[in-house]
Design goal:
With 554 residues, the chain is mostly helical. 47% of the residues lie in helices and 8% in strands. It folds into four domains: 105 residues, no CATH class; 200 residues, Orthogonal Bundle (hpI Integrase, Chain A); 47 residues, no CATH class; 108 residues, no CATH class.
Length: 554
């Protein structure tokens, strides 16, 4: 589909029937970059001047300097009344170039008055969505295509024209391989499909986030099912109708989306997402949202270096930095990109490197050893995942060491054997009618620490009167406790109304219960399940003892 200015100016490729336009095209093709976008911009300005004045391009160059100045100045004044000062100044600069190439130079150079344009002035309002708003736009985009468009724009920062110039074959291999972050290359060949693509012919590459990759896979899967497959030379995003309704299906799949079509897809998603200023949201707005993601903290709390940020934006690094920037290691760049966080920030929700450092210090792990163990060049930074892996290995080793600890050994001995076991390092832990409970202390745990823990476990949940009847070393009721109701453990508060048994005391082996009908009949419950059948289980002393002993026995 040709442009209206091509027909009016009689242009075919880079040749025109008007000599004055031919000089302009030759200049753009030979001395400049030969960009189709530049040709469109210059020729559109000349075409608009022709429509305004009713003259042909060759008639302009035969006019006197004063007449040309008056005509161009009036035309630019008209542009300024209808558009912004920046647009009028740009149009004026384009026309001055056209006339200079046709002899208006030196003393004949056009002398025109420009238009005041303050710094950072922008007459067209713009709204830049937050990351949370952009993700909401993707969720309410309307269909699989629009969802994929918004997520790709958000996670790559591609310009409108560049996104429309991507072919399916350029990402097919990685899309089928299954990586979370798909490589998208921006190259000069895109200009042949969309003239404005690959701005300033700056080639670079960027990746998609995991959500965008999944959205692309769903979109392409649905499209393949609908059209019976996808060819490599088909565009990644195609029009769903609109201005291409007159084209056949094959022609539409091999024709890039219109600029306006992409603009409307973004605006509709912004409106559905509840953004009040949705009319001012454009694909470039999402590019700026992507830039804010690059500037924000990574998932590990660090920040991406400024050179990598500028590269992912498709910018040329200043001075001699660009030639020395290493952009050949794609996998390293992919690893850096994978650390970007596309999750809206919630205070306190992100784990940072500082948090890992605190955990490492608590475990007695020296993260500096990891740098020494890495077989990489000097100055390489520790990655977040490397730190996590290092800590995971340290925790695993500590758990293996703990599992090798000597486990406590329990025995029931008689009173005659008690002194022999105590001299061998055993502890007396409780006394029953049948004998004395002794335990060999854990080799790597201080004896006093065990006593303190056992003291806290047995006395938790008891009253001061109950604690008075407990020995400071043996931690079991005195022998006369059964005769004095005030010196026994209180019965659990929550008991079943029809319960046959009631608790009377607890020991290291379990809970003793007795029957009201027959006080002499006692029963030892060695498990929580067994005791629950007799007495309603509570958070009292008995349950705490069992939990504590289970911990010691592990």
């Amino acid at each position: 589909m040709g442009h209206v200015w091509e027909t009016y100016l009689r242009i075919s490729g880079w040749i025109s029937e008007y000599e004055s336009v031919n000089k302009l095209l030759s200049y753009l093709r030979v001395r400049k970059s030969g960009s189709e976008a530049s040709k469109c911009t210059f020729c559109s300005a000349v075409y608009n001047l022709c429509i305004y004045s009713g003259k042909t391009p060759d008639e302009f160059v035969s006019m006197k300097k004063a007449d040309v100045e008056r005509l161009v100045q009036d035309f630019c004044d008209d542009r300024r009344r209808k558009r912004s000062a920046g647009y009028a100044n740009n149009t004026q600069a384009l026309l001055i170039t056209f006339f200079r190439l046709n002899g208006f130079k030196g003393t004949e150079e056009l002398e025109l008055q420009g238009y005041y344009q303050p710094s950072r002035s922008r007459e067209r309002p713009e709204y830049i969505p937050s990351l949370e708003e952009a993700l909401r736009m993707a969720n309410v985009g309307g269909d699989l295509r629009n969802r994929a468009i918004i997520l790709v724009l958000l996670s790559t920062g591609l310009r409108n024209s560049t996104l429309r110039a991507i072919l399916y074959g350029e990402i097919k291999e990685e899309l089928e391989k299954g990586p979370d972050n798909i490589l998208i290359r921006v190259h000069e060949e895109m200009k042949k499909r969309v003239p404005e693509a690959c701005k300033n012919r700056i080639e670079y590459f960027v990746f998609t986030c995991r959500e965008a990759t999944e959205a692309l896979r769903h979109y392409m899967k649905g499209r393949a099912a609908r059209f019976g497959g996808i060819e490599d030379d088909e565009f990644l995003f195609v029009s769903s109708g609109g201005g291409y309704n007159k084209l056949s299906r094959r022609e539409r799949l091999h024709t890039p989306m219109q600029n306006r079509g992409l603009q409307m897809a973004v605006k509709k998603a912004a409106r559905r997402a509840g953004i009040k200023e949705w009319v001012h949201v454009t694909p470039k707005s999402l590019r700026k949202t992507f830039e804010s993601v690059l500037r924000s903290r990574l998932i590990d709390g660090d920040r991406l270096d400024i050179k990598t940020q500028e590269f992912f934006m498709g910018h040329i690094l200043p001075g001699s930095q660009d030639p020395y920037f290493d952009k050949t290691k794609i996998e390293e760049m992919r690893a850096k990109y994978s650390r970007l966080s596309f999750t809206p920030y919630r205070e306190g929700s992100q784990v940072t490197s500082e948090s890992l450092q605190v955990i490492a210090e608590a475990l007695g792990v020296d993260l500096s050893l990891l740098r020494e163990s890495k077989k990489e060049g000097p100055g390489s930074e520790l990655g977040f995942r490397e730190k996590v892996q290092f800590l995971r290995e340290a925790i695993r080793q500590n758990m293996q060491m703990n599992n090798k600890r000597e486990k406590p050994e329990w025995k029931m001995v008689s009173q005659e054997e008690l002194m022999t076991y105590l001299n061998e390092g055993w502890d007396m832990y409780g006394q029953l009618k049948d004998g004395v409970i002794v335990r060999r202390q854990i080799s790597d745990t201080p004896r006093r620490e065990l006593f303190n823990l056992r003291d806290a476990s047995l006395t938790a949940g008891t009253t001061p009167e109950e604690r008075k009847c407990m020995h400071a070393t043996d931690f079991y009721p005195r022998e006369n406790a059964a005769q004095d109701r005030e010196q026994t453990f209180s019965e659990p508060k929550r008991t079943r109304p029809n319960s046959k048994w009631k608790g009377i005391r607890q020991t290291s082996l379990g809970s003793y219960v007795e029957s009201p009908e027959s006080p002499k009949e006692e029963k030892l419950c060695t498990s929580a399940k067994e005791r629950t059948k007799a007495v309603q289980k509570t958070a009292g002393v008995g349950s705490i003892i069992e939990v504590t002993l289970d911990r010691f026995a592990e």
